Amino acid sequence: MTRPRVIDYEGSKYSAEFWTSEREYEDRAERIALRAMLPPHGRRLVDIGAGAGRLAELYLGYDEIVLMDYARSTLLEARARWGHDPRFKFVAADAYRLPFADAAFDSLVMVRVMHHLADAPKALAQIAATLRAGGTLVAEFANKRNLKAMLRYALRRQPWSPYSLEPIEFVELNFDFHPAWLEEQFQAAGFEIRQSRSVSFFRVGLLKRLLGAKTLASIDGALQRPLASLAVTPSQFLRCTLRRAGARQAAAGLFKCPECGSTEWREAPEALTCSDGHAWSIRDGVYDFRARGG
Asked: What's residue 250's pLDDT?
């Protein structure tokens, strides 16, 4: 079976070059949404697509925190920042082949990841399996039906319609989603949507310069819930709960072999080997499940 395409930031300078002072407003606005939607405490949380751990300080109410990304190099940045805290684990893995035991997590965060998913339903099925019954998923996605896209379409400056339901791949492995279509995918995967927030109302360079990131984010935060139903911002946040019906029983440990599904392991300093003999490397404090042997 052909695997969905995966974007790889390995070796990139994404953390340093993207999250510059010019995006302080977006960072602040996303933190406001996440603080409001994420349960502040719990046993175990995973951030899928955590990168260098930009949002990790918001997870410190959890007993165990897993930062996962496909790019091992960004996880090394995260480990440099958070490796001093024994609650953190760093995992390199594919969102379509998650290496986590069934019902392992109380909460799951996925911010600025959905827009890279070529097969969102497949990824959501994997995510649902890792959450306990009643667990919380906070997910952000890039909104196809945003105000700028609607205006550009009305002026005939873009060929695709922001009103059609199907996702649009505007750049390779960069997708915008219609809110109605994506909400259907969450529900099909077993999630109940409890809250939505519209985020980044003011993603305009001139406004950032005139008002400043702190003021602009404060205004954004005040509008996120009242105007959520309009769904016209480029970034949308959803808080979902995994329905109890059909939820799986939790295994004792954290990991599940993505090759065979085993949850029995033998751990050595340089490798994690499942009961069927599949070995996955551990290097520089990063568990690597992208390919056997790392």
From this structure: 62
Fold for the domain defined by 14-244: Rossmann fold (3.40.50)
The helix (H) or strand (E) run that includes residue 63 is strand 62-69
Neighbouring C-beta atoms of residue 136, cutoff 10 Å: 22
Average pLDDT, integer, range 3-9: 88
pTM of the model: 0.95
CB atoms within 10 A of CB 20: 9
SS3 286: strand
In this structure, the dihedral spanned by the alpha carbons of residues 37, 127, 264 and 43, taken in order and rounded to 10 degrees, is 10
Map out the domains of the chain as residue ranges.
14-244, 255-294
Average pLDDT over residues 93-114: 97
Closest CA to 200 of 246, 235, 151: 235
Q: Helix or strand or coil: residue 44?
A: strand
